[in-house]
Write a structure and sequence with these properties.
With 272 residues, this protein is of the alpha/beta class. It has 9 helices and 11 strands. The radius of gyration is 21 Å and the shape is globular.
Length: 272
C-alpha cells in the first residue's frame, strides 16, 4: 500500500504532466489563430471586469446609464463609439425607480427593452449568477455602486484581503460567462483622472483585479471633464469630455459636428 508521501508525489507528477500539455513555445503561440477581443464598446469595454471611478458628483451614474442605453440599442457611446448591441443589466443599488426614470427621460436617448434595471439593494454574487441564469442574453452587468455591493457582503472596503476575493468573484463571473461586468466606485478626495489609478478610493485590490479602469473627473459646476483609460487590453489615454444640458457625455475631440448631430438624432429617437 503506497504511503501518503508517495500518493502526494504521484498526484504532483500527474498534475505536472497535465500542465505540460497546455504549455506553448513563443513560436507556437505566435502562429496560433486566436479570436479577436469581442468589444462591446470599441477599445473601451470588453468582456471582463471594468472599474469606473469618480467622485460622487462627477457624473458617473449618468455616464453608466448612457453606456447601458447605448449598448442595449447598438448606438453610439461618447458620440463616436459604435456599440455592439447586447442586453444590459443595471443594478442601481443606491437609487430608486423614480430617480432612474427621471434620468432616462432627461437623457432623451433611445429606450429599449434590452436595458434591464433593478434597484434592489441586497445584491450578492449568488444573486447576480441566478439573475444571469434567467437572463442568458445579458452581456453587460453594471453595479452602481461597488461600495453598497461590498456592504451586502460584510466586506471592509479598505482591507485588501477582503476586497480581493470579492472583486475576484465578479471577475470570475465575467470570465466564465464571457460578459462585461462594470463596477462603479468613488475616487479619493481631490483625485484627478489624469493622476491614474492611485486615486481610486479604498483598497487597491479592485484595481489589481480589474481588466480595465476608467476614471472620470469633472470640476464642480463645469460641463467639461476627463476620462482616464488604462488596462490590460486598452490603450492608455485620457479622453476629453463634455456633457450637454441633458447630461449626454461626448468626446469633444474625436467627433465632427456632423457626427455629433447624427449621434443626437440617433439617440433621441424613441423606440418602445
Amino acid at each position: 500500500m503506497p504511503t501518503l508521501d508517495e500518493i502526494r508525489t504521484h498526484q504532483a507528477k500527474s498534475a505536472a504532466k497535465a500542465h505540460v500539455g497546455t504549455i506553448r513555445s513563443a513560436v507556437e503561440l505566435a502562429e496560433m489563430d486566436l479570436p479577436e477581443i469581442d468589444w462591446l464598446v470599441p477599445s473601451l469595454i470588453a468582456p471582463g471586469l471594468t472599474t469606473i471611478a469618480g467622485r460622487s458628483d462627477a457624473g458617473k451614474s449618468w455616464l453608466l446609464l448612457q453606456l447601458g442605453l447605448a449598448v442595449s440599442a447598438g448606438g453610439r457611446f461618447l458620440g463616436n463609439l459604435r456599440c455592439q448591441k447586447a442586453d444590459v443589466l443595471y443594478l442601481a443599488l443606491e437609487d430608486n425607480l423614480r430617480r432612474i426614470k427621471l434620468r432616462l427621460l432627461k437623457l432623451g436617448m433611445n429606450l429599449t427593452h434590452g436595458l434591464r434595471i433593478d434597484t434592489a439593494n441586497e445584491v450578492k454574487p449568488q444573486n447576480i449568477e441566478a439573475i444571469l441564469d434567467e437572463m442568458p442574453t445579458v452581456k453587460m452587468v453594471m453595479i452602481d455602486t461597488l461600495g453598497r455591493y461590498l456592504e451586502n457582503e460584510g466586506i471592509d472596503w479598505n482591507k485588501y484581503a477582503e476586497v480581493t476575493p470579492a472583486a475576484g468573484a465578479l471577475h470570475s463571473i465575467a470570465k466564465e460567462r464571457e460578459i462585461a461586468v462594470i463596477a462603479c466606485t468613488h475616487t479619493k478626495k481631490g483625485a484627478k483622472a489624469e493622476e491614474g489609478t492611485e486615486g481610486v478610493s479604498g483598497s487597491n485590490a479592485l484595481v489589481s483585479v480589474s481588466d480595465t479602469v476608467l476614471m472620470l473627473s469633472r470640476k464642480v459646476e463645469q460641463s467639461d471633464g476627463k476620462l482616464y483609460v488604462t488596462g490590460r487590453d486598452v490603450e492608455e489615454r485620457t479622453i476629453d469630455l463634455e456633457h450637454t444640458d441633458d447630461w449626454l457625455w461626448y468626446d469633444i475631440n474625436a467627433p465632427s459636428e456632423t457626427t455629433i448631430t447624427e449621434f443626437n438624432q440617433y439617440n433621441k429617437t424613441p423606440e418602445f
